[in-house]
Design goal:
CATH superfamily of the largest domain: Tetracycline Repressor, domain 2
Pfam families: TetR_C_1, TetR_N
Shape: flat
Number of helices: 9
Helix content: 55-70%
Protein name: Transcriptional regulator, TetR family
Low-confidence stretches: none
GO molecular function, one term: transcription cis-regulatory region binding
Number of domains: 2
Largest sheet: none
Mean pLDDT: 88
InterPro entries: Homeodomain-like_sf, HTH-type_TetR-like_transc_reg, HTH_TetR, Repressor_TetR_C, Tet_transcr_reg_TetR-rel_C_sf
Structural class: mainly alpha
Keywords: DNA-binding, Transcription, Transcription regulation
CATH topology of the largest domain: Tetracycline Repressor, domain 2
CATH architecture of the largest domain: Orthogonal Bundle
Amino acid sequence: MERRRPIWLREEEPARRPRLSRERIVAAAVELLDAEGVEGFSMRALAARLRAGTMSLYEYVTGKEDVLDLALDAAIGEIELDGDDAGGDPREGWREDLVLQLSRGRRVMLRHPWMPALAATRPLLGPNALARSERVYSVLARAGLSGADLTAAVGALSFYVNGYVAAEHTWWSRLRTRDADAELRDEVRRHLEDRPERYPTLAGRPVVTDGDFDAQFVLGLSFVLDGVAARLPGPGPA
């Protein structure tokens, strides 16, 4: 089976018909993915949303995978980028930069639940994805990381954010409301408190009662960043 080349690595002829455009197709694809997820996405459903014939889409893209590449990069483009100020001491402020950037990424992925899983299935070579990768890499490179340490640090941060958001989506797809979340957590707490001999560490501690996903995200991210800081050259962590 011939390997599919990502759309970003192919030279393509411009579309001939003005009735549709890649921009319209991609915007509709993002809406369809938000509504139905990757599992419910098809070229037929996309064409119906655009009120166009399915075959007319193939004048702008070669197939479904191209549309998914484009839709994912468009959603990544919603992650706001600040100007990259390289002035001053590169060891100062790198953690704050990354917390801000990765928190923005989480918020966008919460709006688009299909992003984490789809991002794991393809190389992220679109212009929006590369611009945000460049931002994270440059912050860590100027802080002092290089080589395998730099690659591993970016990977650890990406896996943490994507995994955290994927778990959030799964959790809320089952519980739906904050009240249901609090009720389940309370049931789990009572279950553990009734079995202290089996679970002495878990019983009586608020390990399942904290439903503040925002605070947990930032706290967990701080542990990853502590590990990154420990690898920086110089007198000590930033």
